[in-house]
Amino acid sequence: xxxxxxxxxxxxxxxxxxxxxxxxxxxxxxxxxxxxxxxxxxxxxxxxxxxxxxxxxxxxxxxxxxxxxxxxxxxxxxxxxxxxxxxxxxxxxxxxxxxxxxxxxxxxxxxxxxxxxxxxxxxxxxxxxxxxxxxxxxxxxxxxxxxxxxxxxxxxxxxxxxxxxx
Length: 166
Hints:
The radius of gyration is 22 Å and the shape is globular. The chain is of the alpha+beta class. Helix 2 (33-45) packs antiparallel against helix 6 (146-155) and helix 4 runs antiparallel to helix 5 (120-127). Strands 1-2-3-5-4-6 form a 6-stranded antiparallel β-sheet. The chain contains 6 helices and 6 strands; from the N terminus they run ααβαββααββαβ.
């Protein structure tokens, strides 16, 4: 009995540590804009040559600028034969969130209409884009790798948003 008393606290400590380790594996991954965009770029864009949009290009492409964002990452590959994009936006507030969503929908409508004439498969891919949210982040993916993108987004507990097809 004294042996049980002597090592009982050790057993309790081991059980508590095991429980902490198990619950730690189930916690949400941190959802920083850099981490999410990097993970998506790795699985979606792979080794393709991409362009990261500058602040000026952001304004021209999406019709909103850095004045409505606290941070953003946009990587895209665009040619006559194909279009892919990973965009993660952090609007500054709810009003800015609406502006960003409107800009995303406008940019997608323009891009889709361009590809409708060039490449019907790419047009359909753009129409089937993924639009997700995680806390204050808005995440747009246009890719040939939607299953891989969904897997990454699910790891970060992102919620799907129904895109507004134009």
